[in-house]
Amino acid sequence: MNSIPERSCWGVARWAVAAFLTAIALIYLFGGFQAAQIAAG
User: Fold this and answer.
1) Which of 26, 27, 28, 31 could bridge to 35 as Cys pair (CB 3.0-4.6 Å)?
2) Alpha carbon 25 to chain centroid distance?
3) Model-wide pTM > 0.85
4) CB 33 within 8 A of CB 27
5) What is the gyration radius of the CA atoms in the chain, in angstroms?
6) 3-state DSSP assignment of residue 2
7) Largest CA distance in the chain
8) Distance between CA atoms of 39 and 30, rounded to whole angstroms?
9) DSSP letter assigned to residue 1
10) Rounded to an integer, what distance in angstroms lies between the CA atom of residue 17 and that of residue 36?
11) pLDDT in tens, 4-41
12) 3-class SS at 41?
């Protein structure tokens, strides 16, 4: 039972990293980082 919270914690971290990498990939594919910089600033 003690391993369940640890697994869920690592699962959340893993999904967060996956979502972050996916977002970067989409920005790169659709507009490149120059477009992202223009939108941000």
Assistant:
1) 31
2) 9
3) no
4) yes
5) 16
6) coil
7) 49
8) 13
9) -
10) 19
11) 555 667 788 999 999 999 998 888 887 766 665 666 66
12) coil
